[in-house]
Amino acid sequence: MADFLVQANGLKKYFDNVHAVDGVDLNVRAGEIYGLVGSDGAGKTTAIRLLVGALLPNAGSVNICGYDVFTQTEQARATIGYLSQRFSMYEDLTVLENIRFFAEIRGLSSSEWLPRSMEILEFVGLGKFKDRLAGQLSGGMKQKLGLASALVTRPRLLLLDEPTTGVDPVTRQDFWQLVIKLVSGEDGVSVIISTPYMDEASRCHRVGFMKAGKIIAEDSPSNLRARLNGRVMELRGEPLNTLRHIAHHDPDVEDVAAFGDKLHLRVKENAADRILARLPVEIEAQNARLISLRLIPPALEDVFIALSESNMESEVA
Amino acid sequence: MFNSRITSIIRKEFVQIFRDPRTLAMIIIIPIMELFLLGYAATTDVRNISMAVWDQSKTTQSRALLDAFRAADYFVLDYSVSSSDEYQALIESGDTRVALVIPPDYDRRLLDGNAQVLMILDGSDASVGSTALSTARLVGQAYSTKIVGEQALLSGRVAASAPVEVRTQVWYNPDLDSAYFNIPGVIGMILSFITSILTATTIVRERERGTIEQLIVTPIRSWELIVGKLLPYVILGFIETAEILLIGHWWFGVPIRGSGVLIIITAGLFLMSSLGIGLFASTMSNTQQEAMMSVMMFNLPMIFLSGFFFPIAAMPKFLQFVSLAIPLRYYLIIIRALLIKGVGIAAIQNEVIALVIFGVVIMGAASLRFRKRLD
User: Options 3.40.120.10, 3.40.1710.10, 3.40.50.10950, 3.10.450.50; which CATH number does B49-154 get?
Assistant: First the structure.
């Protein structure tokens, strides 16, 4: 098993005729943050549920910390902490009661759970709210409670399923600081996190891009971005609609996406020079105003969009 | 068997139960309500049947007959009428159930030994009708026996051919008070209903609220989860049993003649069946409403086929056969025998064995179906 903490091979899960996960291989090292990204319905949640053994796969195997998830289930689960997409703490128990409950059924003795729970509640910033009913917490606090509960037994692997969806930006930032602290701390926790947000994906050490139940691209964020080097241009000017129309009809432009008051153009390989020569003329001819047109380093979002379009798969992946 | 994981689940269940007023009310108040409702409503004692009398004879003899009817305690001679139209109207309006017609020549024919009276019954309510019918026959028989004896005495003959007299002895419940029969039934019914509903909903609630997903990924084993979830309801089931038994005893005067140990053990066995039904229903449902419906699906036919409302012996053979698979049937026999007859284990051993078999089968089947997984 070398130095991989998580090894999944050929995972498949079908719901009736839907191939929710269709042959996923996944290797995660100790101390690594691995991001699963992809659009809704790409199979991220099903993949994570398979990894924790909450669902049985139609094919494939998962090994976590040396334990087979489907045959040595209890041992494997003793090493993981899991935060599901849906809030899954007891709303009619208090924060501390929830932590205590999950600490105890994960095997923490009565002398261990209290100091450990308080420590972890302080860590996530819920110390003050320990006697509040979980149902009365805000969305962000609920996610922190979920994280605290997942962390209370010092797992070696943390699986987080869209933990920041629907959470405000400040809390998201907080949440990521906690995750980064965990990974860089002495425990050296590994994290598998699914997210629809590109800024979060770019914080991961490695990103697997899921589409239709498959991981179609997997690399570090910078390597993923490098795949589009020289192929993303930024166009500024007005009116934006006219610019978009012009760009769209250029034979070398594959895609136009709006980023606020700018347009990102994904262009064919080695086509940047031709576009730099052609577009300003065209814009002038249509009485629009050009502010700037330049080649920029690609953002992860550009890669994400490129990967999302099926015809680009083979080219970019 | 009581490892720390199970105790934490039990503790958590109790905290949740005590924090939820609805569940608490269901556990404590509903049994009492049902006991009082059914204790009073589910009575088959037919007393005070209203009777209309058309006494065309109006003699000492006819009045003596009416006195005999009054003395039987089942009839109230509310109406004295003087035509058939009158009593017909009374029966049609429901004001009276029975009409007694004594012919004008009653006293004369009595002397001849072939007196007849006419009794008209409202048969639309079968239980009232049949009670009235059998009581009227008894009264008539007893009265004529008495008269035959008196005549024999008058004529100076020894009553060598005294008619047969049936002397009855009613055991265990000399007043034939139906509460004796019904209250133990109510105990069984309440126990099976409430515990199975609570069990089914407590498990399904974890699925409905998503908490099951967090439970699944803990190292807890399925059987530990089942034991931890069910045990609080076993304890509550016992408390409920005690509660309704004591109220049945103090308020409705139902005796507790059998051994306390046997009552507790058999209640435990019956609880195993109802909890098993609840657990089984929970494996078929995704929401609490579905769970409720599934439990009802089990419980309603159970109650009708258990012999609580309708005697099993009177059912068609096929339904009698079906009722063999109904734990409440056995528990009703057991609890009635224990409370009213005060029997020992020997008298109820077959029923106890049946309960054990049912409990083990339903628990086993439910546990096999119970998956610590999302799919």
Answer: 3.40.1710.10
